[in-house]
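Researcher: Please generate the 3D structure of the following complex. Treat every line as part of one assembly.
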Amino acid sequence: MKNMLVVTSGIVAMILSTATLAGPREDLLAQYAAAAKATGFSAARGQALHTQSFSGGKPDTPSCTTCHGKDTRGAGRALTGKTIEPVAASVTPTRYTDPAKVEKWFKRNCAEVLGRECTPQEKGDWLTFVIGQ
Amino acid sequence: MRIPYRPLAIGLVTLAFSALVLARAQAGDRHFFAPVADPVVKEECGSCHLAFAPSMLPARSWQRMMGELDNHFGDNASLDAATAEKITSYLVANAGDAGGQRYSSKLLKGVAAGAAPQRITELPKWVSEHRKVPDWEWRHKEVRTKANCVACHTAAEQGSYDE
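Model: Done. Output below.
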């Protein structure tokens, strides 16, 4: 029991230390957290958002996976036929390091898929999901 | 044995003629449209589709397109004003009617003087060049859209549109 406590606190400490090592991704997440007044982001919610089908956007792009593919670590494909680099940060490490670029694509893709802007909570959840992939 | 001179001669002439046409097609008529060299233009115009060569449309087409980015073939592709301005000047400077573009005058043949066509695939010359491509090829899952040049022109990103 005591051992488990030590391990758990160790993990918590590790998470905290990576969170405080503020890179562009962490800054971005912190911004979304502040905007959402969120207590936290969830990769599971992000995954649900990623795979869910919406009806508010364009009929030919009902879901993120329509273009990005079901496998986050595999390449996607735009309707134009153009290849899209995998969304998983582990496979495409250059991703999510330029806040303006992240915002640009949230703006475009949320409008196309959901037919509205994504909320800071949704953005934070989705980013948490793909950064962990 | 009687040698069939006439059919033989016709055959030879046909063969020689085809060889000549083929050689000309391979050597002389290269379809080169310089690819986008500017990194910002390449990034902004080449994320969703091939960054089409600016020399494939006249300047007025690019100007109109850049002014209607909020409805870019059905998508909202708006950019911040500074980026849009930078891209517009690059496209205009390298447009098909900007001069020094060797193959553009051919491609833009038949486009009315004041017209600002938006789709390269609707240029009269483009249509006639692709008239022999059957419907099923356009619908092929590796092609999907006429805007997907690289599906057939594998060196399109380098500016070459030879077969």
